[in-house]
Design a protein that fits this description.
Elements (H helix, E strand, L loop, with lengths): L13 H26 L6 E2 L14 E2 L3 E2 L2 H17 L3 H24 L13 H29 L7
Antiparallel strand pairs: 1-2, 2-3
Helix pairs in contact: 1-2, 1-3, 1-4, 2-3, 3-4
Length: 163
């Protein structure tokens, strides 16, 4: 417990704790995306990597032998990682990253579930394992982002005030 301008009593308010939590979560999620993007280019961790396709449903490279990847798919993970680490610096940014990114992954899960995976519509590419992962990831990111919504809401109405 330390002194802060927003809370001179030295005790963390619920909003301050939520703010630290959501920024930490966004940092971890961003770092994991960055790591996954890098691992998608490493032979052995990614099977059938030679030759790795830029995009398309004919991808044979599989991260951990399970999740279809391509150069485009890996670059998307890298970008999600960089954006996450950047946005994790503020509560509002971390919250937007988690909720917005979660919604994007939910849309991707639905997209992967409704398209024919063996056609050009599967340009990312994704497979059934990716679809399930995207669904769980999307739900988890949105749920974790709600922590940040509480922090920003509490800060607007005067966090730390007697209730």
């Amino acid at each position: 417990m330390s002194y802060s301008r927003t809370n001179p009593s030295g005790y963390d308010t619920d909003a301050e704790k939520a703010s630290k939590t959501v920024r930490g979560i966004a940092t971890v999620v961003g770092a994991v995306f960055l790591l996954v993007g890098i691992l998608g280019f490493i032979p052995g961790i990614t099977t059938n990597i030679y030759p790795i396709d830029f995009a398309g449903h004919d991808a044979h490279a599989k991260l951990l032998g399970l999740f279809e990847v391509s150069i485009l798919h890996n670059v998307v993970h890298l970008l999600f990682g960089v954006v996450g680490l950047s946005m994790a610096k503020s509560t509002k940014g971390a919250t937007s990253y988690l909720v917005g990114g979660g919604v994007i992954y939910l849309v991707l899960a639905v997209y992967g579930a409704v398209i024919d995976l063996a056609t050009g519509a599967n340009f990312v590419p994704v497979n059934t394992a990716d679809n399930w992962l995207h669904l769980v990831l999307g739900l988890g990111m949105v749920a974790l982002g709600l922590i940040g919504l509480r922090a920003t809401k509490d800060n607007r109405v005067g966090a730390g005030a007697p209730r």
